[in-house]
Amino acid sequence: MTVQGVPGIPTAAVSRLVTYLRILEELERAEVPTTSSGALAERAQVSAFQVRKDLAYFGRFGTRGMGYTVSVLKRELTRVLGLNRSWSVVIVGMGRLGQAIAHYPGASEYQFGYVGLFDVKAELIGTPVDVPAQREGVSGSGLAASAQPRQLNIQHIRDLTAFAQQQAAQGRAIDMGFLAVPPEHAQAAAQSMVEAGVKGILNFAPTLIQPAQDSAGHERGLQEISDEWRDVMVENVDFLVGMKRLAFYMLNPQLRDQDPEEKA
Ligand SMILES: NC(=O)c1ccc[n+]([C@@H]2O[C@H](COP(=O)([O-])OP(=O)(O)OC[C@H]3O[C@@H](n4cnc5c(N)ncnc54)[C@H](O)[C@@H]3O)[C@@H](O)[C@H]2O)c1
Asked: Could you say which residues bind NAD(+) here (predicted)?
């Protein structure tokens, strides 16, 4: 599979960039000034060739024989991954997972800021939830100091479109939504997000999102749907996939493959 819009870049390479960035952050914290493809490879458990190949998709970052300056490569990967800008995020589904995500401070380290929380349960609507502050601006040396933590009141999903319009009018259009509803409601909730103009959905529900119905469950004309869903990106996240893969490889260690690209 390749990255949409940029032919020839495997999505696995993008996942590895995220790993390289995490390693660079660790190196920076340890005040290590320079690194090499070999050192990055060892920590990322891939080959040095793989590291060089992944980085080469996005530009020339190092000096031959000299390796990489940690702060420069970190800054460049942050930019390539789009983490040097702020992203406005809504969470749809404020049950166990939605609440856990909302409280987790990790996302805000990269300027993913929660702007709205949505659910359908009457007892949840209006409930205040503490969310981490969104960090503003990334300097060459790292992230600027964060603002104070904030509280958001959970809103009803039917108010998402009006909320999105309000946000857009203030120049803070909603960029992405985290979908944490039961699988049987995921399609309708995703449709509500798309109707509100959300262009990126991180889907935690163990079901495939298919653009086929409106949020009230009515079948719709193909044209109407394809217009709304044009440019919508859906990423599926499922830790159970990881558990099942782990179980399989623990039972069949000899079948653990090398990444075919790595051999290339
Ligand atoms: N990807 C993962 O690794 C992972 C991990 C845990 C759970 N999950 C999945 O995440 C989802 C949520 O799990 P949970 O344990 O938090 O469930 P939960 O039942 O505790 O919470 C789900 C919430 O979604 C709300 N909801 C239902 N329909 C809605 C709609 N149309 N719009 C807005 N909100 C709506 C419910 O009122 C409820 O508050 C499930 O699909 C679960 O399978 C995924």
From this structure: 93-98
| Closest residue to atom 33 of ligand 1, CA basis | 119
SS (H, E, C) 12-74: HHHHHHHHHHHHHHHHHHCCCCEECHHHHHHHHCCCHHHHHHHHHCCCCCCECCCEEEHHHHH
> Does 105 sit in the ligand 1 pocket, CB within 6 Å?
no
For the Cβ of 112 lying below 6 angstroms from any atom of ligand 1, the answer is: no
Cα 182 to averaged position of ligand 1 atoms, centre (Å): 4
User: Using CA atoms, how far apart are residues 237 and 196, in angstroms rounded to an integer?
Assistant: 22
Fold for 11-80, please state it: Arc Repressor Mutant, subunit A (1.10.10)
Q: Residue ranges per domain, the chain?
A: 11-80, 87-241
Could you tell me which residues are beta bridge partners of residue 118? 92, 155
- The DSSP secondary-structure symbol of 95 reads S
CA torsion, ordered 115, 121, 126, 130, to nearest 10 deg: -50
ipTM of the complex in this document = 0.98
Radius of gyration of the chain (CA): 21
> How much is the pTM?
0.84
CATH no. for 87-241? 3.40.50.720
